[in-house]
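Need tokens for this chain, all 122 residues.
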Amino acid sequence: MIVIVLSACPEGLRGDLSKWLLEISAGVFVGAVTARVRDLLWDRVVELAKDGRAIMVHTAIGEQRMAFRVHRNQWLPIDMDGVNLILRPALKSPQEKPADVRPGWSNASKYRRAARKTQNET
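Here are the structure tokens for all 122 residues:
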């Protein structure tokens, strides 16, 4: 069994993978293929992905019974005493925030605070 997750990849690659695998969500492909076909599909993904990213999880011999392959991704698979883990990149400094986090209160918290304020006034 294999799972391939694509992000920011050309539509042609998605069409190419859909010949062999089932697309269960946008960019997420699942299927049961032989090891040879799996390796050929991964070569095709690396060839056609261009600036996109790809992750493949497939069955393997071992305690976890799975292995990872990544292409142009910041999170990297590492082997830690025989256990495959995904290494998440660390921030350069404790004060640094990820790019997608904006400072301040979320809209949901603002609405809750306003609702509590109106409940306390009545």
